[in-house]
Amino acid sequence: MNPIKSALLPSLLMCTLFTPVYAQQQADKVFDQAALAQFNAQHALDLLNQLPTFVLSEGNNERGLSGASSNVLIDGTVPLSKSDSIETLLRQLPISQIASLALYTGQHPFSQLSEYTQVVNITTQDQGATIDWRARLQSQHSYHELSEAMLSMQTRLAQWQHTMSVKWVNNHAYSSGELALFSDPQQQQASDVQQEHFAERQQGAQFALISRKQLEHGTLQLNASAQHTDWLTRYRWTPAVPEPMNGTIDDETEKEYELGFDWLKETDSEWQLQLTGLARRELSDLSIQEWQSLEPALTTFEQREHAREQVLRLAYGNPTHALQPSIGIEGSYNSVTANTQDDGDPLSSKVTETRFEPFLAASWQIAPQWQVSGKLALEQATLKSGIHAEQTLKHRLLKPQLKLGYDLNEASQLTFSAQHRVEQLDFGLFQTSQSSGFVRTQNGSEQLKPMQYTELMLTWQYARADLFEFTLSPLYQWQQDIHEYQLQANGNGAIANAGRARYFGLDSEWSFNTSRLLSASRIELSYTWRDARYEDPLSGTRPITDLTPHELIIGFRRDQTRLSWGVEAFLPTRLREYFHDEVFTERASTELSAFVQTQVGQGLSLRAEMNTLNKAKYQYVRALYASDRSQPLDSKEVLDENIQPQFSLTLSGRL
């Protein structure tokens, strides 16, 4: 057993029982409406991007509410919607609807976000009847169209504050490239060269309603949303003459519906009872067609998927108490059914999971400069796979978290955290899938355990606003039951549990104040390093699959009350995936982007963005082996892709 994991639980209990108590944590920075007015922002995402060294994080929240979707709270609660990413939700919250913003670094009173060091709580303001709007025009290649339009209305009716939003999207993406096929990997000359063209269109509409009522001793919030999205993806390959042109067409439709509620009751003794619920339903239809020259298209892959989720979370706590105690339980039920036609062969799969997770959390201050917080959860889950639930997997795992913070001085803070976590299983791994771009079919797994890991992390935050700020976070993980592609009995690959791995990492954010050179300006640098060691039975020690070793982003921006502008450079990256008979490598070259944002007239904001200023270049290399990677290299495919610059113009305001 991992010695760190075995020591976590007794350490957590000892600290809970014997630590002296002082005051609760307060926000490190609070921005009221007067302070927010100094930011030139269209929406909440703009606002967070202007906070030096703050990193917006989005976790794995496939099922349930215990794994918070991000390190952002809205009105003190985790956003209930799962239909959109946190970036999309923040982009839909206009700056005019924000009353204040509180930033926590190191320690915070939100037990549901205990895995995060940085947390932001956005408080919205109650208003009369208002209508905010946003429209975006986009231009790339031959597409010059309206790509997004949104209306957000706030009104008060019968003691309820309602926020309703309607959004329409029409996004396009295009790239072109040259695909070289090497039948003999030792030769420098390609045996065949094809021209590839990729085009994707996303069209859809969304309706969302949030209703909030202030009760005599608490609050009640209701959420509802409906979303319909159509995806059309086209690949076209043009070989050398006299071979005919060929390609694929992927047509996918997604429909999502959500209902949620959050009820909070405060007692006379300042304890709070909170009940949160969410119900989701998702329907999707995918059809993949292959065509050649003038012949009719042939459908080779079809899949219809139906997903459901119901989750309830009950918590009882006291955020005003010095210990900030919280106790509760969460229960969820999820099911995904998929009916697939793969080259005419019918395949059916079904996955269900019933999960319960009681938890206990507390946070306290040992001394004026020391803070400790901890959380203990017990995850119990039963997962059944197969159309008749032939495979059953049960697990019961303790998930302790312990965080120790020390304020070196007013400008510097250290936070040490130790935790044991269990990654949620992606139900899609139990289903057959197909990739049109790389002609790759993956089988669904019959039985799969969730990957779990024990993590140690040290975070050092330093802030001298007049000079520079930085955040450094080295981490180390002991991983077990990791997921890797492995060969199945029918010759196709599938994700399976592959043993243990050691995982290393470093996250760093830097912000340098350059106001002495140019007023209200700064240089920003973000660097991430990842490495891992896994004993592969086919090729020996190697990193785990889907790993990007280095990511470096350098930017310069100037933020004034009415004018903001900036440039950003994404330096080259490399990602590698290991299949049983293939090593896939994706390389991205340097990309440049720029933006300018200004206020035009009274309440009208304009933002212009140029992405891939220098024509982004990607290279995809498929090293293919005859049977598996233990054998010599058999052939190779190299795709050099170019993405044209993309220009967008966004207007927003209030009617």
From TrEMBL:
<dbReference type="InterPro" id="IPR036942">
    <property type="entry name" value="Beta-barrel_TonB_sf"/>
</dbReference>
<keyword id="KW-0732">Signal</keyword>
<keyword id="KW-0812">Transmembrane</keyword>
<protein>
    <recommendedName>
        <fullName>TonB-dependent receptor-like beta-barrel domain-containing protein</fullName>
    </recommendedName>
</protein>
<dbReference type="InterPro" id="IPR039426">
    <property type="entry name" value="TonB-dep_rcpt-like"/>
</dbReference>
<dbReference type="GO" id="GO:0009279">
    <property type="term" value="C:cell outer membrane"/>
</dbReference>
<keyword id="KW-0813">Transport</keyword>
<feature type="signal peptide">
    <location>
        <begin position="1"/>
        <end position="23"/>
    </location>
</feature>
<dbReference type="GO" id="GO:0044718">
    <property type="term" value="P:siderophore transmembrane transport"/>
</dbReference>
<dbReference type="GO" id="GO:0015344">
    <property type="term" value="F:siderophore uptake transmembrane transporter activity"/>
</dbReference>
<keyword id="KW-0472">Membrane</keyword>
<keyword id="KW-1134">Transmembrane beta strand</keyword>
<keyword id="KW-0998">Cell outer membrane</keyword>
